[in-house]
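Model: You mentioned two targets. I'll fold them one after the other.
Researcher: Yes, keep them separate.
Model: Target one:
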Amino acid sequence: MTRLEQLQQFLKDDPSDPFNVYALALEYQKSNQEEAIRLFDELLINHSDYLPTYYTAGKLFASTGEVQKATTIFEHGIAKAREQQQHKTVRELQSALNELLFESE
């Protein structure tokens, strides 16, 4: 069983666990960017409290030239991290947002 197949099985076994969707999205980033994007969008909609999504999804959308979507993702992630009092995550997302805005000027 390949890593991809294993992650697909984990998701099938427990579709309610956001980590399973996240891990599969990360794996798809290597081979199928469209599927990775679909999974990150799913996470942002269905598991909006899962903070790891915001940094990785923001970076992915920025790399595809979707600067406005990446900006929005980082901003929402910062708000969610503040709600959850995850100060390190706030700093990481703010840094990524600042970098994106600087590069897009």
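Model: Target two:
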Amino acid sequence: MNHNAPLPPLSPRPLRHLSEVHRRVMTTAQLKSHGISPAEMNDQCRPGGPWQQFLPGVFLLHPGPPTSEERLHAVLMYAARERSPGVPSQPNAGEGHAPAYPDAVITGLAALTLHGFSATPPLTALDQIDVLVPRMRRLRSTGCARILRTSALPTPQQVTGLPVAPVPRALADAVAELTDASAVRRLLTEAVRGSHCEPASVVRELNQAKLLSRPHVVDAVDSLLAEGRAIAEDRLYEMVRDYALPDPVWNVDLRLPGGPHLGGLDAYWPEQAVAVELDTRAPRQGQRQDDDALWSEYARKREHLERLGITVVYITPKKLRDAMEQQAAVVRTALMAAADRDPAAYVVVLPRQ
């Protein structure tokens, strides 16, 4: 056989309908659909040949090392659920149309890098790419593809045309493999400082992954929550300034004259008897009762203050980040409504301890 002879025309579907990366990485089924027999595939992958089998059932149609993009698509091709016979493997295939990868989602460090994290290694430095598949899939890790099984696949976000786990889930999967406390802290800090997500969503995923029993993760979470509260407080200051709300008194404790402590508040408008409190609760493993108790305390405080004629507005960090204008409108409405309410009870305002 003349190994230098060109391949026969690929039929019935020519390759030009595929985007560039999908002319370089293809599965056995895709090659068969173009009229390439298994014997021809093997021949092209001979030592020194023009192709290489990169992962089981996935071929790289050039001899050199794969690019980062090729590795990502190859891993997804390997992990994706096979379609039924007769169903095209590249629906709507054409320039600008991303391929579908059923039941396969990039996660872990590779996903965080795709989301734009700077604390993660570049894709070229990752020995393995984590990919989530349903728990019942019979698939094993091989080559650069590390298979992570899950009972519930997260709804992927499309990043550069690839199905990528949302940041909180990708963080949890990355942290599960890390033992370096400083690396964990850097990732969690960047998630919040970079406005990728809120601390509560990260803690929820870490909790579900049962990672909050690891001391280095707990330490990082404590720093994360402190960081998250500081950022939320800065956004609260920004909201008051940018939306021209009256200046409140900040970070105060309220007490009845000669009576009990009523609770701390992030912002308080004494003349209108309106208060704002940031809800920065985050669920912890084994602390559901503590979380319920904290919420009950919030509710008791709110009820007590409102009996005294004080309106309490609770704002979550997520709402401050995603809907600041709406939250400013809620506070402004409460301030304007004060004129129509009965005067509030007299309370003593002190700096928060």
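Researcher: Noted. Anything on target two?
Model: The longest strand covers residues 261-269.
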